Amino acid sequence: MSQNTILVIGATGKTGRRVTARLRLLGEQVRPVSRSSAIPFDWSDPRTWDAALDGASSAYLVPPVEIGPIDHFIDRAQSVGVRRVALLSGRAADSWGDSAFGLDMRAAERAVHASSLDWTIVRSSNFSQNFSEEVLLEPLLRGELAAPPGEVPEPFVDIEDVAAVAAQVLTTPGHEGQTYELTGPRGITFGEAVGLIAAASGRTITYRQITPGQYAQSLTEQGLTREEADTIAEMYVLMERGLISETTDDVHRLLGRPAATFEDYVIRTAADGRWPA
């Protein structure tokens, strides 16, 4: 087994599948794993970890909701020869206070900080693709998105930029011990975002601000558990405090080009027919 394999955990997810494709294009040997992959991986089942880690020198980690297993996984990874990890985290993780979201992110970051691995943390703003690959899509297709954010702007970041940074971190030197904060080039409100999607797609879509409690209830009606719904609603409350509204130039600095705009994402996604007219 090659000792230069890059393990991608969560390879069927939004970032994982994009990181996998980019690494393959770079000629890297990649092992993409998920619960349904040929080599299955489940954070909650340590019996699946050894086969996934076998021969891996680096790993891309999207941490689990239940953060406990990541400490044990990091220990296991070190013991079998993994040397480098890139951890996906949330923007300004140390500013989220004692929210469930903040506690989970900081616990994952502490786990890699405490290791002897060459670690890099990639903190990301909310993805632009949340409007086309997440719970925000269905309301848009119905013609109205109702959510808590008001007039505080969010510097949505394109997942493709996040994946490009992660692939670079895993394949080039100089990123050890670094924490990168990834944003788009400017902040826009949710109302502005919906307006851009409506214009590019030709659909009639409106945005309506509702309370966090109302939003959590709507998420449970879409099939999320109450705990999941409350965590997401809590995140929007913290966003409204302006904790992650500022932009950074980390994408530009790392990739040597400007971060994609929200308009770039909207045009590309509308052309793909994700929001059919």
TrEMBL record:
User: Domain named NmrA-like: which ranges?
Assistant: 3-241
Sorted alphabetically, which Gene3D superfamilies does this protein's record hold? NAD(P)-binding Rossmann-like Domain (3.40.50.720), UDP-galactose 4-epimerase, domain 1 (3.90.25.10)
**InterPro entries associated with the record:** Ergot_Alk_Oxidoreductase (IPR051604), NAD(P)-bd_dom_sf (IPR036291), NmrA-like (IPR008030)
Q: One Pfam annotation, family name?
A: NmrA
Organism superkingdom: Bacteria
PANTHER family referenced in this protein's UniProt entry, alphabetically? PRESTALK A DIFFERENTIATION PROTEIN A (PTHR43162:SF1), PTHR43162
Name of the featured protein: Uncharacterized protein YbjT (DUF2867 family)
Q: Which organism is it from?
A: Williamsia limnetica
